[in-house]
Amino acid sequence: MGKVHDFKMFKESKIPILSATKVSVDSGYQGITKIHCKSSLPKKKNKKDPLTKEDKEKNREISSEQVDIENVFGELKRFRIIAEKYHNRRKRFGIRFTIIAANFNKHQEAKK
Questions:
Q1: Which of 25, 50, 86, 108 has most Cβ atoms within 10 angstroms of its Cβ?
Q2: Domain boundaries, the chain
Q3: What are the tens digits of pLDDT across the range 44-65?
Q4: Where residue 29 falls among pLDDT bands split at 50, 70, 90?
C-alpha cells in the first residue's frame, strides 16, 4: 500500500479471477484487459484521441458502479487498518478486519 501501485500489487498477488467474473476497475489498472477479458476500464483521453460522447457515457456508467465501492474503502480507512501499515500480529488481522467490516455493515443497515 502507498508505495506500491495497486495494479502491480494485484499482479504480484496472483489472485485468480474466474473467467465468468466481471471486473470493474479504475484507470490505474491499465492493461488488465490483457489479463482478464471481462474487465471494464474507463477510457483515457489524450491530445490525439479525445473522448467521444459514447466513451464519456461509458466512463460515467463505470464510475457510477465504482463509487459505492470507493465509499466503502474510504469508510474502512477511518479505522486505519487498511490505510496504514499493520503493526500487530498477522494472524489477528483477519479477525479484526472482519469485525470492522461487520460493524460497518451494521451501521449501513441502520442508516437505511
A1: 25
A2: 1-42, 61-112
A3: 888 888 999 999 999 998 888 8
A4: confident
